[in-house]
Amino acid sequence: MRCGIPGSICHVINPRNREKSGSTPPTAKTNSAMNCTRDVISDRPLLMLPWLAHGHLSPFLELGKRLSRRGFRVHLCSTPANLSSVKLDNCGGVELVELHLPDLPKLPLHLHTTRNLPPYLMSDLKAAFDLAQSSFCQLLDSLRPSLIVYDFLQPWAATAAASRQIIAVLFLPIGAAAYSFLSHIAVKPTEQFPFPSIRFDDDEEVTRLHRLTAASSDSPSDGARVIQCIELSSRFVLIKTSRGIEEKYLDYASLLRKKELIPTGILVRKPHYHLNDELSEFFMSKQEMAEIARGLELSEVCFMWVVRFPKGEEVPLEDALPKGFLEKTLGRGMVKEEWAPQEGILGHASVGAFVTHCGWGSITEALGSGVPMVAIPQHLDQPLNAKLVTELGVGKEVIRSVDSSLERSYRGEELARVLREVMVGGESEEMRRRSKEMAEVLRGEGEAEEDMVATRLARLLNDGDAVEQRPWSRNWAGDEGRRRRKEEDKVHEKAMNTQLQDHACLGCNNFCMDRHYESGSGS
Is 151 an active-site residue? Predict the structure, then answer.
């Protein structure tokens, strides 16, 4: 049996019942920016194509809604199974378009999404998505979009667009710290990453990442797909973050990949829940769940814990949790199955901390709400995101222990210790202050960053630049291609180095220049 915990593993209630921070409305959009954007937007629609996961669908939809408010006509394309989680009456001007995957024996229609997808079928879902190229091309021909915004696993979408003289821009719904770190180890594998606070703690995490993203017998690796997607993106790449938290990582990754990263803002939606089910697709084992329960019990803090199970493996809570846990925590703890309104809970004045596996969507929601975090990352980019949480001074990471079988796992005692440090420890007030300050900065910058995205996309449309103007880049072997590319790279690197000089030497962002934590200590 497997048990599950969503992206919001639990919300811990602050015993001090802190007051709501004064939330100021976002900066109003300037009329000049709006008019400038609308003047050059084509009458033809913008088409968005996210990967088939809720953690990708949601930021694409949020970006689409913001572009729609700025005059773009937006269509969001995905499978019926993936779109079923979107409430049709709250799409903010975004029109939903169905993309049908080919029929495969192992993949019934309800599994044309990563939700409830068994891990062993992930390669089949990727293969089926690749086979949907012809269906996507039919959509391009019928909708005739002026621009597509695509995700990191489908370079074929950009290729299909280019063949029709349609502009294609990559949108990465991940953090810039993780993206720049992973780009560094791909481009400069023998050199140390210049920002040592962002790292994997051990080789096991690297091995796990390679295993999850490896190539199959008939499909390229995720890493190869990402590289292709970056190269095919017109002029720049969009990324779900803000300069207020990841400026140096944005600039460094732009330098490494030789393509400008443009932040979209964190795209946190208002808590009216246009998604029916915004949950993690990662499930903990029963033993891992027992350690979480032990940590909550030992911490003696009040909590809400949201628990879910893989489809078809649901069990009563009394059987899933350690014996006596519900009785021992009665009166200070609430365990809820399947779903809870995460944004609404995070925005409540009584929530003093957020225990999270550090998916980027959950981190940005906590940042936008000004809630400190307790990080218990699992895989992929989550360990890197957890390091960013610590670097920013808005939370602490629970460090895994090594047991007798040399397996690394979380221990309830360590979770309880970190929980109490974040809630009532000596640095808890400072973490709350930093979290509130961060939320204010992100609110202030969000509108401006969204305006900039709209302006840059409109500029692409105005220029009629369907593909990046590097005709020689398709002939890497040619002497002229190598010479021209080398000259251009020198100019780009010089410009980016100038931007990096002001902050590449810092150990952390501007919010935590005076605050570093020792690794491996749980601090």
Answer: yes
